[in-house]
């Protein structure tokens, strides 16, 4: 009997050349985990998008790219927002659309200047809803000190969207002498967080699921460019900045540890987790380290600069509760651990997907 040969289906994607781990190979279609900022997102980017778009600027995989144009150093970033619900305690999708891109630019040490704004509207969404979002977005831009310079609007058929999606892109100028990127984290560096963590994700969950935690949890959504400016005024040589959005503090620190080839050790008792967030996470079976933030930043600085950076942060309203949560170490490079209150050491790994989808 002749051997049966299976010919490839020309309509199916060819996975033979892919080298990604199992979570991506196991899915021939996109699943929610691919958008969660965890391992599946990383695999999708690394093994599908990066080879397709490969270039030196993209290789750093930072929140914004720093390019030189006409002699000026410019940070350039884009982001899309698909949050549900559209409005939540402390903000809405309009606030997120501005603050998310402003913060990505600020994490490169840039002063954001101009944004674009693209609305994708589903047929049937109330004009009153769109108007409220537009007003929120305009007010957020004014607070952040940026100009909405250009935009676009598209409408999709009813049932083919989710009310309102927004895409923003932004540019800003990077100060002379600033070199902020994850690869600069060094052994001995101090890890600082600007305030309480996990607040945004729990605020979204509380209204999405109609769960009361005894008190209203309000999102920390805010523009961080003013805080970053104050930090750079105090210490120009900040090594790393990151806003821990999707995947939370844990995912951001894992990305930094891998990029720099250092280990990061946290102290659990030093983590600023509000009681409401801790109680909500306990009730929902979540870990606050993996819950999204929208108005907090992580800073990694040389130990000799830590006091000056902390003082500058605490003098700013958005950094009043800044605190040291860990250090960069030579052991276990590429890994994040935490010393627990019981005296044990726990590995804080990157999640596969995301505990709370659709939070930004």
Characteristic key phrases:
360 residues, alpha+beta, 60s Ribosomal Protein L30, Chain: A, Phosphoribosyl-aminoimidazole Synthetase, Chain A, domain 2, 2 domains, 7-stranded mixed β-sheet, 5-stranded mixed β-sheet, 10 helices, 14 strands, 30% helix, globular, disordered N terminus
The number of domains: 2
CATH topology of the largest domain: Phosphoribosyl-aminoimidazole Synthetase, Chain A, domain 2
The percent range for helix content is 25-40%
Uncertain runs with pLDDT below 50, 5 residues or more? 1-8, 15-25
- Indicate the proportion of strand residues: 15-25%
Number of strands: 14
Q: Reading side by side through the largest sheet, how are the strands ordered? A: 9-11-8-12-10-13-14
CATH superfamily of the largest domain: PurM-like C-terminal domain
Structural class: alpha+beta
Radius of gyration, Cα only, in angstroms? 21 Å
From the coordinates shown, what is the CATH architecture of the largest domain?
Alpha-Beta Complex
Tell me, rounded to a whole number, the average pLDDT: 89
H/E element sequence: HHHEEEEHEHEEEHHEHEHEHEEE
Oligomer: single chain
Largest sheet: 7 strands, mixed
Shape descriptor reads globular
Distance between the termini: 58 Å
Number of H/I helices: 10
Q: Give the CATH class of the largest domain.
A: Alpha Beta
